[in-house]
Amino acid sequence: MPAGEHESGSRWFSCSMPRRAGLVAGLIHGLLLALAFPPIGLYGLVFLAPLPLVWVSWSCRSKPLVAAFWVGLGMMPWWALAHIWVASISTLGFFPLAALMSGYTMLAVWISARVLRRWPALIFLWPIVWVGVEFFRGVIFLHGYPWYLLAHPLADAPLLSWPAAFVGTFAVSLLVAVPATAVIAWVTNHRRQGVVLAAVALAWPIIGLAVNPWPGASSTLRIAIVQTNVPQSLKVAWTAEQRYDDWQRMRDLIIEASRHEPDLIVLPEAMSPGMTLDADAYRVELEADLYWRRVAPDGVPENISATMLTEELVIFQRMLDTPILIGGAAYDNLQIVEQEQGGYRYESDARYNSVFVIDRGVPPTERYDKVLLTPFGETMPYISASKWLEKRLLGFGARGMMFDLAPGKKLEPVEVRLRDGKEIRIATPVCFEATMPWVCRRLVGTDPSVALMINLTNDGWFGTWTPGREHHLLSARWRSIETGVSMVRAANTGISSVFDERGRVLALGTRDPITGLEVLDQGAGVRVVDVPISDGRTPYTRIGDIVGWVCLAASGVLLGLTFTPSGGKDRSEDHGREPEGGERRSHEQPQETES
After folding, report:
1. What is the DSSP string of 187-228?
2. Which fold has domain 217-372+407-538?
């Protein structure tokens, strides 16, 4: 091909046009991610997604900041689409969130381009930089947000997901970025790097044919999932009358679940119909002798004891003789204070988002308090240290929300006594915690006595945006792939689901007991599943996310080195020697100072 044609064809991705190159690369990357993730789910496209970013990191390395900024702009449509549900909760928070997520992609391209400007032959390190930034986003900054990782679409491909059972999901993200990097290394005449990267990409699924890091299942536990479908608009301000009406429907669903003789009945996060369930707070309520007024369907007003709904739930469990897991509020040192304007106010030293175990027909003392509060849903990272600032930012960007929860003090499984008297231990990550690798790893531990994970969640925040529920489910699914422990998800508005010890989907959705129709989301129903109980753990439970930590450290070191003196010129400008593979320098742009 004549040189003129080569230069003309590469002009869109040349240093003379970093803005256009960055924008196009970001748009293509975002489009490929949108096609790879649910609901479309063409997961093979995730291997193509890094290609435009690797290419722009290489070709626009003379202006890394400019190219990276425009990559971030190109990513905005994807991140806005992925988080469109946030707009209904906080319109002002939606745009900064989309910008922040785009900023992570921008950061990865900027670091990579700076490294390649200094050392072009280090193109093979692009996947390490990418995972370093992905790990920073997913675990470190703002308490972590490990959704939409490059690895996630591969949950249905055990030949490709197996490294997560050894060293975590970030290792799979690293491998996903390898084929695209191999292609760019080859076309930029870094042939040896390209061949080595291609060999790694080919070895990955081949090794998957030979290894099996997941433990086997030694028994099963019959779990009944109750999907309640209490709208989020009610959960924000659940009145006493609404609690009463919703409890009537929940009670019918629990009865339906009990007909299948399950070992355990599970209800979603924050579904306890009373104000609290823990024994100490219940006694305070009982001693206060509070009542609330309700107008019955026949129009006659009636007084209802404030503890009646809690009492009914506990008595119900005693009658069914089946343990129940349910989410609700717990308090430290609850006090009920009479207000001057009338009525009463609940005050405490701390209020928790908890999972309660009802298994002896009495108000429960066994519970797990959510340790990692959801960033910007239950707490504002760093900002919540100042309640004054938190209150004003909530009033500005999310009016009506209250961040009044305290984080739990310990990550420990709960003990449940089954109908036959056998006691089992269950890890109970709450909502967002099921997407955090380190939380579930610590809850499960290395002791196989923890039978399974049960994730109580309230996905009503997603409104009618079903892809949001699917992404939440997909992120949680990787916890089973990593640990080799089955997971049951009871989701208020769906999608309730069950994964086995390899992360394979055993059940998706529930069944409406009246119509008999399958319910995925935005509906009430029951699902009974025999869940496999594994008799071991994966290596990941002992090793942890070592790949993520190494990539983060390596990325930081590489970035730091790019700011050190280089002897007056970059290696990319060294025309005194022939680059590896005989790269022709006639097509490279002159080095320019970054601004």
Report:
1. HTT-HHHHHHHHHHHHHHHHHHHH---SPPEEEEEEEEEEE-
2. Nitrilase/N-carbamoyl-D-aminoacid amidohydrolase (3.60.110)
Instruction: Please count the other Cβ atoms lying within 10 Å of the Cβ belonging to residue 303.
Output: 8
* DSSP, res 583: -
Contact residues for 433 (Cβ-Cβ < 8 A; gap 6+): 370, 371, 372, 439, 440, 455
Rounded to a whole number of angstroms, the CA Rg of the chain reads 27
- pLDDT, tens digit, 9 for 90 and up, residues 178-209: 999 999 999 999 999 999 999 999 999 999 99
Looking only at the bridges linking them, the beta strands covering 450-457 and 487-491 are parallel
Q: Which distant-in-sequence residues (6+ apart) come within 8 Å of 451 by Cβ? A: 221, 424, 425, 426, 533
Residue entry with tokens 């370093």: 132
**What φ, ψ does residue 218 adopt, rounded to 5°?**
-100, -20
Rounded distance, CA 466 to CA 64, Å? Answer: 37
Residue count (the chain): 595
Stretch among 241-250, 288-297, 511-520, 529-538 having the lowest mean pLDDT: 288-297
Q: Write out the H or E segment, with its range, that includes residue 490.
A: strand 487-491
Non-local CB neighbours of 312 within 8 Å, separated by 6+ positions: 247, 251, 273
Q: Which of 98, 104, 144 lies closest to 379, judged by CA?
A: 144
User: Cα dihedral sign for 302, 308, 313, 316?
Assistant: negative
Question: How far apart (Å, rounded) are the C-alpha atoms in residues 157 and 504?
Answer: 9
HSE, side-chain direction, 13 A CA sphere, residue 515:
9
In tens, the pLDDT along 263-286 reads: 999 999 999 988 888 899 999 988
Q: What is the pTM of this model?
A: 0.89
Q: Can you tell me which residue has the tokens 């999901």? A: 169
Which residue from 86, 147, 133, 101 is spatially nearest to 477, judged by alpha carbons?
147
Whether the CA torsion 47, 50, 54, 55 is positive or negative: it is positive
| Band (15; pLDDT cuts 50, 70, 90) | low
3-state DSSP assignment of residue 455: strand
Angle at 342 between CA 337 and CA 343, to 5 degrees: 55
Q: How many helices (H) and strands (E) does the chain have?
A: 20, 18
CA torsion angle 117 123 128 132 (round to 10):
20
Is residue 294 within 8 Å of 245, Cβ to Cβ? no
First to last CA, the chain: 35
Q: Where in the chain are the domains?
A: 14-213+544-563, 217-372+407-538
Name the nearest CA neighbour of 59 among 11, 24, 130: 11
Token pair of 347 as six digits: 């005050």
